[in-house]
Amino acid sequence: MSSDFPQWASALATRMESTLERLLPRADIAPQRLHDAMRYAVLGGGKRIRPLLAFAAGEVAEADANRVAIAAAAVELIHAYSLVHDDLPCMDDDDLRRGKPTCHVEYDEATALLVGDSLQTLAFQLLAEHRLADDAALQLDMVRILAVASGSRGMAGGQAIDLASVGAELSLPELEFMHIHKTGALIRAAVQLGALCGRPLAAAETEALQRYAKSIGLAFQVVDDILDVESTTATLGKTAGKDAEDNKPTYVTILGVAAAKAKAAELHRDALDAVAVFGDRAQRLREIADFITQRKF
Amino acid sequence: MSSDFPQWASALATRMESTLERLLPRADIAPQRLHDAMRYAVLGGGKRIRPLLAFAAGEVAEADANRVAIAAAAVELIHAYSLVHDDLPCMDDDDLRRGKPTCHVEYDEATALLVGDSLQTLAFQLLAEHRLADDAALQLDMVRILAVASGSRGMAGGQAIDLASVGAELSLPELEFMHIHKTGALIRAAVQLGALCGRPLAAAETEALQRYAKSIGLAFQVVDDILDVESTTATLGKTAGKDAEDNKPTYVTILGVAAAKAKAAELHRDALDAVAVFGDRAQRLREIADFITQRKF
């Protein structure tokens, strides 16, 4: 890993924080409680992996960082909305997120429901009201990509499959199908949107980015499953051991820890192979792949 | 009311049903239960008032009806998502909608949550993936308009204000502020989007449509409040007397039935005045105003 990756990632996380801070409705605008809760759910936490991926993909396409910041914020708002709804009692019923009480615990369930709803809406509003591409038709395509990645055949569909799989015996392909939707779709969208903020790429280049994003999305999930059994609640900032407690199928329950680690390493290699074609321009993408595979939280 | 209005409205409701039927994911595509529940929540019911308004506004701007149908479907999906979430136990906790069990009763809460989430996403996907305007920048503006109308400073914000007002004493201006957001914003968006599918309107014409939409949106709500006390569950297809039971402030609780009816009549006149400028092209808008004020369900 290049020596300045932590600085780069940390500077971008700070930048995203101030971008999101500015784009979210102020807490003193009516309805105040809703706006306050939206800010609570989004600001002050998270690894901001999806924004990092958008920026790194933007570097491949020499994108304007101001444009990438907006696209990355839209993706992060979709991610934040999904966490708020996923933590609700009727879903995963979790009390802790990013080391803080979850939104429905800090506020109430009805507010958390509306927070998730409104964060999703705001994501699409951002993609529509800021200039992100010279060609408006291309920008409309960014809206389409984020919608497809988020909806019933993307992230939300993955959550539905996840719900149906609790207590079920899943095969490895079935587990992979779930994750390709539940977390993978939005990670792929982050990479696509970041790149679309820049100069047009050749079809082979776009395909290379997609291969990278698919591998890194799965690697992220495999590592998540390993951390759930090997880490502590304090380190994770969310409840450790939750998967086993909830009787959820994971890479670890299907493959065991050792084979899950080998799988993560294989996906890591796939991701690096995919972006080799970009040379130096893919440095940040490579570093993120390293980070995702080696992270401890 | 012109003699063929019921036929026009009924033909469009049929057309919307088949448009929505075609645009919703098929129930045999994974995740099947989610897609089945999305179709359950949207198809086979509703007055389709917002689509009718979009078509009527489209006539003013001589819009292509195929384009209006997509824009109207997007608005109707936002409306349907809001009903599914609004009926959840943590919100209004209602069991009956359009004469059928609500989505979380027929399926389960987690599925209903994801249904609402996915219907919202699909609305934005439709506005992005179909050609609705010759100018893509204008179409991007349609995405923005729908997002602003739906989000924390529009419909969802109105629901948050509504939640906060249960058991509270509201003044008439406060009640109006809530409705302008909760139901008014999406009704105004329906009119705007329908018109944007057609030829560009002069600023004064756009403003006239906005005045119409604002009046008709409030009239709709005043009549809703009157029907809640004067009608039966069987006629309404949803639980009658729910507002009083929930101790919700309404036009009837604040003004009384007689003054609420006078208010509805005044708003009806305002709406007709606003669109007088369009002459014959506003015939359907006028008829919808009549229908909304005179409806019994």
Structural features:
homodimer, 297 residues, mainly alpha, Farnesyl Diphosphate Synthase, two-stranded antiparallel ribbon, 15 helices, 2 strands, globular
Shape of chain A, please? globular
Oligomer: homodimer
Helix content percent band of chain A: over 70%
Distance between the termini of chain A: 18 Å
Largest interface: A-B, 51 and 51 residues
Task: Report the CATH C-level class of chain A.
Answer: Mainly Alpha
In the CATH hierarchy, the architecture of chain A is Orthogonal Bundle
- What structural category arises from helix and sheet content of chain A? mainly alpha
How many beta-strand elements of chain A? 2
| Overall mean pLDDT of chain A | 94
Strand content of chain A: under 5%
Number of domains of chain A: 1
Unreliable segments of chain A (pLDDT under 50, ≥5 consecutive)?
none
What is the rounded Rg of chain A? 18 Å
What string gives the helices and strands of chain A in order?
HHHHEEHHHHHHHHHHH
CATH third-tier fold name of chain A: Farnesyl Diphosphate Synthase
CATH level-4 homologous superfamily of chain A: Farnesyl Diphosphate Synthase
Main sheet of chain A, how many strands, which sense, barrel? Answer: 2 strands, antiparallel
What's the helix count of chain A? 15
Strand order of the largest sheet of chain A: 1-2
SSE order and pairing:
The structure is a homodimer of 297-residue chains.
Chain A: H1 5-23, H2 32-42, H3 49-60, H4 65-86, E1 96-97, E2 100-101, H5 103-106, H6 109-129, H7 136-150, H8 155-165, H9 172-196, H10 203-230, H11 233-236, H12 242-245, H13 251-255, H14 257-275, H15 283-294
Helix pairs in contact in A: 1-4, 2-6, 3-4, 3-9, 3-15, 4-6, 4-9, 7-9, 8-9, 9-10, 10-14, 10-15, 14-15
